[in-house]
Design brief:
The chain has 133 residues and is mainly beta. The chain is built from 1 helix and 7 strands, in the order αβββββββ. It has a 3-stranded antiparallel β-sheet with strand order 4-5-6. A two-stranded antiparallel ribbon has the order 1-7. The protein has a two-stranded antiparallel sheet with strand order 2-3.
């Protein structure tokens, strides 16, 4: 991997490393040395830190995808898949909120590359389990 000089790329790379480690860890081990995302409640291993990326005009980056039912949809929530100094590869996530206000995310199986020169801010959302990765 290239040496990351871009501050946004460094942050995104930390998120990617956390996610990569979460997929390799035994969820039963809750020791002090166990790296995991979020609070480990009920021995759940969170595998994703959803993010939103913002343009310099304070608007979130939104991308289109097609649902399995063939419906066109838009999302501004992503999962970091790869990072270079100049760009971030993301998986588009479908966000749903139930009547109780609980938010869940599903993989759309749609990927995109975003130029980091266009990104001015990153918003990290609460760590979650995306079950269909």
């Amino acid at each position: 991997m290239d040496k990351l000089d871009n501050c946004l790329a460094k942050i995104l790379n930390v998120i990617k490393v956390l996610q990569d480690n979460a997929l390799k860890i035994d969820c039963i081990d809750n020791s002090c040395t166990k790296p995991f995302l979020g609070i480990n409640t009920n021995l759940l291993c969170f595998n994703t830190r959803p993010i939103m990326l913002y343009l310099c005009n304070n608007l979130p980056i939104t991308l289109n995808y097609t649902t399995p039912e063939g419906v066109d949809a838009t999302t501004s929530v992503f999962r970091v898949e790869s990072v270079t100094n100049d760009s971030v590869g993301v998986l588009l996530l479908e966000e749903t909120t139930d009547a109780s206000g609980n938010t869940t995310y599903l993989s759309t199986n749609t990927y995109a590359t975003i130029n980091l020169d266009c990104v001015c801010a990153i918003r990290c959302l609460a760590d979650v389990i995306v079950t269909n990765l």
